[in-house]
């Protein structure tokens, strides 16, 4: 398995991609034998399973408990391992599945992302973890011998739980913190934030843009006092411990951290074994690709450390010793029955056509005038004729297709109240529904395309006019941002709107969305696409805030570059953002840390086509958007899918819309005859 000890992320993955396998899906590989001349002599497809097929997965969803049981075949009783989730708070099946494949009953659960314990980690009550342990003890196939497993912050929680629950037989923690720490690694105890030291992020060191946090963690641990430390003396003497530390960890010093844990446990008379290995913080199950850093949801590049081959070998060694530890203190479970292996592995998607592949290459035809801007303000259906044409260019067959933007059962409700003009997309039923507000951008008018597709997923969606209609200001620079707040208050008053509200904004609409979340603490989630970092000034007048012109930097149009007559403005915007001051920046520090989960995305994820150029009437010039057709179109799919996952995670998954009957035969619009 030596080759698999050196697996790392390929260049095909996005910069800063974080690899996880929350669903414990198989990994597929193609192993090739390549000669010096780079010819492929032979190759074979391989599949790595994370879970034995004889294991049964049982979903738990009762009385505020949300988790997964991995149960071996047979009546039991079995020794049990509880996999404590790390700081992400979500169910991560990979580690649990591999433990279960050794014959243990394994239970893992969600702490806050899919539970009733709160919207984020700070809302979680540590006492609630005890409920999960009591639930496991009540299982008829649990032997009563229970061990805890925790990685990183999950290990800290495991150590804490051992000080509260006396009948834990074994605790295994990998790269775990010495204690809870503010502001990120803190939870509630008896209804109040647990007392702990504060992490000083000013001590972090950036190396090639990646953050090394060793100094900040070391300084926080140095300040530990009895009241901010774990109560090691409260742990039962019958509980055994295994501590694994990574020597190349970039979060904290693995050696010093592990020795601290060992010393505290020795002082209290506990049995503890320590293993220090050359690896980084992200020390996973065997043959999992090594990851030395990733782009965190906190919007910085966090370093894990470790060298690929050494870390890969350490995964094998550590995992073997983890199993020995649990078998020693929990008992050796029965071997699982063998299963029939596939004789030939077919890679997922191999030999299959992407049914939407043709639509990834859609672009303007030569019949469309140069500089035409594609939009679908009314979300009208798109019509296509799909033809099968051989080399002889004869049409063998063809079919008419129609793409809908709005579900037929979604009701559109027009809003006209004073100077407020908007449109509600309401799913069928009384609600309440999680709501998304589609914030208009520099054009100011209603664009149904985004709103219609968001409503397809069952969300209540509201979009509105910013300027240029009725009693509203005629131009963008006359608009007052106060009206956006009134639209948010209007949505909150709707009887079918839940208390979960998200904002969606593209380009300048994204900047406005980021501004609004600094003034509306009730916003739960924000998705912005390519938003400028701050407001900027084009003319002598600027957008208003409470009837006063906002302070912002002025765009220097002279820095724009013309390429074949198309204006590229990257330098102009870079110049603005480089000169930002506290007065001209958004007030990021005012965003609620408890409610809001902003997520910024990059790339042009439009719903129409990857448009690289368009004529701007206001500036009387051709504006460049950039992007390559196929890559941009694939990014549309991936980006949109992730937008929806994000909203469902933070707003809640709305009820699925009922299906509707499709037309058997499509008549092209304005055709008048069937084809």
TrEMBL record:
Annotated Acyl-CoA thioester hydrolase/bile acid-CoA amino acid N-acetyltransferase domain ranges read 1-62, 353-416
- What SUPFAM superfamilies does the record point to? alpha/beta-Hydrolases
- Specify the protein name: BAAT/Acyl-CoA thioester hydrolase C-terminal domain-containing protein
GO biological process terms, alphabetically, are: acyl-CoA metabolic process; fatty acid metabolic process
Coiled-coil stretches, from where to where? none
Q: Which domain of life is it from?
A: Eukaryota
Q: Which Pfam families match?
A: BAAT_C (PF08840), Bile_Hydr_Trans (PF04775)
Q: Which GO-annotated molecular functions does the record name?
A: fatty acyl-CoA hydrolase activity
**Where is each BAAT/Acyl-CoA thioester hydrolase C-terminal domain found?**
124-331, 479-592, 612-652
């Amino acid at each position: 398995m030596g080759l698999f000890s050196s697996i790392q992320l390929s260049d095909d993955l996005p910069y800063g991609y974080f690899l996880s396998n929350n669903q414990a899906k198989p990994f597929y590989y193609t192993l090739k034998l390549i000669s010096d001349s780079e010819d492929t002599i032979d190759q074979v497809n391989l599949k790595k399973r994370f879970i034995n097929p004889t294991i049964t997965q049982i979903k738990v969803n009762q009385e505020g408990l949300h988790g997964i049981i991995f149960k071996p075949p047979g009546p039991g009783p079995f020794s049990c391992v509880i996999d404590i989730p790390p700081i992400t708070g979500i169910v991560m099946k990979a580690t649990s599945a591999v433990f279960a494949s050794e014959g243990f009953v394994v239970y893992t659960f969600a702490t806050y992302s899919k539970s009733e314990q709160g919207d984020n980690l700070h809302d979680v009550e540590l006492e609630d973890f005890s409920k999960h342990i009591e639930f496991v003890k009540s299982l008829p196939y649990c032997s009563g011998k229970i061990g805890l497993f925790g990685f990183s912050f999950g290990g800290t929680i495991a150590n804490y739980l051992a000080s509260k629950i006396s009948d834990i037989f074994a605790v295994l923690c990998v790269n775990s913190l010495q204690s809870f720490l503010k502001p990120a690694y803190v939870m509630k105890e008896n209804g109040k934030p647990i007392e702990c030291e504060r992490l000083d992020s000013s001590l972090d060191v950036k190396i090639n843009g990646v953050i090394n946090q060793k100094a900040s963690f070391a300084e926080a641990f140095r300040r530990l006092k009895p009241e901010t430390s774990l109560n090691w003396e409260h742990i039962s003497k019958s509980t055994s411990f295994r501590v694994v530390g990574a020597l190349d960890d970039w979060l904290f010093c693995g050696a010093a951290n592990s020795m601290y844990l060992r010393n505290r446990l020795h002082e209290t008379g506990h049995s503890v074994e320590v293993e220090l290995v050359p690896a980084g913080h992200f020390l996973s199950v065997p043959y999992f690709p090594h990851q030395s850093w990733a782009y965190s949801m906190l919007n910085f590049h966090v370093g894990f450390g470790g060298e690929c081959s050494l870390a890969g070998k350490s995964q094998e060694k550590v995992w073997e010793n983890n199993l020995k530890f649990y078998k020693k203190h929990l008992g050796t479970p029965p071997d699982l029955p063998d299963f029939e292996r596939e004789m030939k592995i077919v890679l997922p998607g191999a030999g299959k056509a992407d049914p939407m592949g043709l639509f990834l290459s859609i672009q303007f035809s030569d019949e469309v005038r140069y500089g035409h801007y594609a939009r679908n303000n009314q979300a009208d259906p798109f019509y296509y004729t799909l033809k099968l044409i051989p080399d002889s260019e004869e049409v063998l067959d063809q079919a008419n297709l129609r793409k809908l933007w709005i579900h037929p059962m979604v009701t559109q409700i027009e809003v006209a109240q004073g100077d407020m003009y908007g449109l509600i997309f309401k799913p069928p039923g009384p609600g309440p529904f999680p709501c998304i507000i589609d914030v208009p951008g520099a054009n100011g008018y209603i664009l149904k395309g985004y709103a219609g597709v968001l409503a397809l997923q069952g969300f209540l969606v509201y979009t509105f006019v910013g300027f240029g209609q009725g009693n509203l200001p005629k131009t963008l620079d006359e608009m007052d941002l106060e009206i956006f707040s009134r639209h948010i208050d209007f949505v909150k008053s709707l009887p079918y709107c839940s208390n979960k509200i998200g904002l969606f904004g593209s380009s300048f609409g994204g900047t406005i969305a980021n501004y609004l979340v600094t003034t509306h603490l009730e916003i739960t989630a924000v998705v912005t696409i390519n938003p400028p970092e701050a407001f900027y000034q084009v003319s002598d007048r600027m957008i208003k805030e409470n009837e006063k012109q906002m302070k912002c930097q002025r765009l220097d149009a002279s820095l724009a570059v013309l390429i074949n007559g198309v204006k590229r403005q990257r330098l102009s915007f870079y110049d603005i953002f480089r000169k930002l001051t506290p007065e001209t920046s958004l007030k990021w520090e005012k965003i609620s840390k408890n409610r809001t989960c902003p997520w910024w995305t990059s790339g042009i994820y439009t719903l129409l086509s990857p448009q690289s150029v368009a004529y701007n009437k206001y500036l009387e010039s051709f504006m460049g958007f950039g992007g390559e057709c196929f890559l941009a179109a694939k990014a549309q799919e991936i980006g949109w899918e992730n937008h929806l996952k994000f909203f469902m995670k933070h707003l809640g998954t709305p009820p699925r819309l009922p299906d509707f009957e499709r037309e058997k035969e499509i008549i092209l619009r304005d055709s008048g005859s069937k084809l």
